[in-house]
Amino acid sequence: MDLSVVVPLYNEWQNVEALFYKIDTELQKLFLAYEVIFVDDGSTDITWKVIEKLKKSNPKLRSIKLRRNYGQTSAMVAGFDYATGNIIITLDGDMQNDPSDIPSLLEKLDEGNDIVSGWRKNRKDNFSRVFPSRIANAIISLTTGVKLNDYGCTLKAYRSECIKPLNAYGEMHRFLPALASLTGARVTEIPVKHHPRKYGDSKYGFNRIFKVFSDIIGISLIIGFSSTPLKGFVICALPFILLTVCFGILSGLSVMLDWTSGKSVFFMVVTALNGMAVSHLIALGVLGELVVGTSDLSHTKMPEVTKKTITMKGDAE
Ligand code: UDP
Ligand code: MG
């Protein structure tokens, strides 16, 4: 299989059929062996029924139904596990992404990239969505070192060997390029089209802003310290080390200079508490090193990423 298109769907029944035919029409032009994987993320409407009906007349459509609503990241990961294509394309199920951008994504992959991310340069969402997203993109680019204008765009193309081993969970789907870059994956982006949502509602409310920002902190820490946890814990311990030294000196001085015993006891207690914080943090760092050393943290230890190229037969002819 050359290509798998993975689409997460949560209560998108009005979009399913039109989306499938749009994807199918675009992919037929490429003369590649492809499959379209619709992942129903525990929809409570008739999304699954529509998928089942479509499948009867379209063998290229494969589908997974999750037992409950697990969230977009888990839905996408379920699709990745199921996908058999050398290349995986993801896009939203609400017709905001345009499947006609797929050929450009593939061309960019063929140039030697491992992940090509869509950039909704002319985004059709309102300002209250676009503005926080701009800030988030700037922070993620800065903290992860992978500079993209639009992390939030689901329309992306991945070489499957770069994406399948990643342990994505929570709301991590936005950060997959940054996580994959840990393995040496080459990431780039190209402008893509974007349309306003016609049917159904956005599945995210205002609290997405808080979720995304807390994820940014989490991801930055994972990227910064997942292969060197002790370093991270030592950095956290530095202020406590400083306090231990300062209060240790004060304790010594207070005993030597015969200050009132109350003050000496206070300094000693503070020294001991800070010392305990230091030893706990360092012990956690050592444990972290043991975990990294013994476990299969694939996002830190993936073998060399191969750069297979695909040829669009339509072009060759
Ligand atoms: N989605 C999902 N599970 C969820 C939330 C969203 O599978 O819990 C899907 C949704 O059906 C859509 C895509 O993820 O296909 C993006 O969601 P949405 O369009 O609501 O996000 P927005 O465009 O508002 O960022
Ligand atoms: Mg949308």
The low-confidence runs, each spanning 5 or more residues with pLDDT under 50, are 303-307, 313-317
Question: Which percent range describes the beta-strand content?
Answer: 5-15%
> Helix count?
12
- Count the E strands: 7
Helical percentage: 40-55%
The neighbouring-strand order within the major sheet is 3-2-1-4-6-5-7
CATH class (first level) name of the largest domain:
Alpha Beta
Globular, elongated, flat, extended or rod-shaped: what is the shape?
elongated
Query: Mind telling me the CATH superfamily name of the largest domain?
Result: Spore Coat Polysaccharide Biosynthesis Protein SpsA, Chain A
Please give the radius of gyration in angstroms: 25 Å
Structure description:
It is a single chain. With 317 residues, the chain is an alpha/beta fold. The protein folds into two domains: 3-224, Spore Coat Polysaccharide Biosynthesis Protein SpsA, Chain A, CATH 3.90.550.10; 229-296. The protein has helices spanning 13-28, 47-57, 72-82, 102-110, 127-144, 160-163, 176-181, 208-225, 229-256, 261-294, 298-301, 313-316; strands at residues 3-9, 34-40, 61-65, 87-90, 115-119, 156-159, 187-191. A seven-stranded mixed β-sheet has the order 3-2-1-4-6-5-7, with helices on both faces. Strand 2, helix 2 and strand 3 (61-65) form a beta-alpha-beta unit. Helix 1 (13-28) runs parallel beside helix 2 (47-57), helix 5 packs parallel to helix 8 and helix 9 (229-256) runs antiparallel to helix 10. The radius of gyration is 25 Å and the shape is elongated. Mean pLDDT is 89; it is low at 303-307 and 313-317. The protein binds uridine-5'-diphosphate and magnesium ion (MG). Uridine-5'-diphosphate is lined by residues 8-10, 12, 41, 69, 71-72, 75, 92-94, 96, 202-204.
